[in-house]
Amino acid sequence: MSNNIDLKRGLDIPVAGLADPVVAKRVVSDRIAVQPCNFKGLLPRLLVREGDSVAAGSPVLADKKNPDIIVTSPVSGTVVEIIRGDKRKLLAVVIEPDEKQKHMDFDTSAGFSDADTVKKTLLASGLWTAIVQRPYGIIADPATKPKAIFVSTFSTAPLAPDTSFTLGGEKDAMQMGLNALSTLTDGKVHVCVNDGDSPFAGFSGVETHVVRGKHPAGNVGVQISHIDPITKGDTVWTINPTLVCAIGRLFKTGKLNLWRKIAVCGPAAIEPSYIEALPGTPMKSLKGFYGADTKDVRIISGDILSGATTGEDGFTGFFDTQVTIIREGHDEELFGWLRPFRFNQYSADRTYFNWCLGWLMPGRRYNMDTNLHGGPRAFVMNDSHYARVLPMDIYPLYLFKACLAGDIEKMERFGIYEVLPEDLALCEYIDPSKNNIQSIINDGIELMLKEMA
Question: What pLDDT is attached to residue 294?
């Protein structure tokens, strides 16, 4: 397999509001949330109560199915609120940080001597939850060994943060994190970069691949499909580079440190730039980026295609390094389908304006909003319509329909083991039928987890 992969299919959405490469501030919030919903496959058991004191790195949640898997607090402080939803579903554990932070000390003196030592340290610190297992995108099972581990050091999602800016100064920590991960598999650790001159192209003990192309070239699922595809019975682990650095810092200092640079961006963002913050930071702490009136803006933890809408009362996600702020599209357009010249709107299908003139301004970005410009209807396109933005060897339309029908055999045949919802986000974006394709894929994965357990 070539270490240089050039993808021809995909789509870069030219949305405005890219974050300037400058850190605007370090956000020290009066509340930090630990959210079990961030960890797919976790059946949470609460280990703390309101009023309890915790240190950074001390257990807050455990998995009922596997008690060795725990979620730890990113800060020291006092548990001030347990947030529950319908049927008492646990939504968040809110911690009020201490003025002076205290950390749990983890014994990392043995370094990377063997897999069991590394595994024990990652489980005790809570950083085991950073490792995602494919298929299905669940927390990795400590009892298994993957055939390979993949790290994508770049993202091609709309307005994605520049990892050379956010992590360029942490190459030593990333190398240490990769060394730890390499003990967990008998196969290879694959590191994907978007350029041969990338600062992340020279790590030792890994196999580096240069992947070029439009979005979703940066999605680790797409990279796996071109390097070492997943078939039935295979297990592959993935981890994002920010959390690889967190693992490296853990083995270097013996302390949990989840601070990261987060891009606050989007067409509705005020002076888009970066912040330094912890996962679980309240969106209210970012009020300076979206103003006092939140009625007409949507606040998203993640990117506009696959991020989670949190609103002002929500928190940043454990895996997210981006907050996107976009205007709500409430306005309706009379006879919009009869107007080919829409100078301020982007068309992925080139059905108006940029169909004939847009090529003259290839760098133009658009102030997009959430307006769907239509309602759901039956699938009306053939498979090639979706395949042109999906550089994977699967049949997307047939997979969608198999998921809707709950046909496990056809889901397997058409690629359910290879994808997560984020990999099909562009298909949802260009879908003229306005279907919630990511939800369809997620429902299919949930069915597979239930039936194949």
Answer: 78
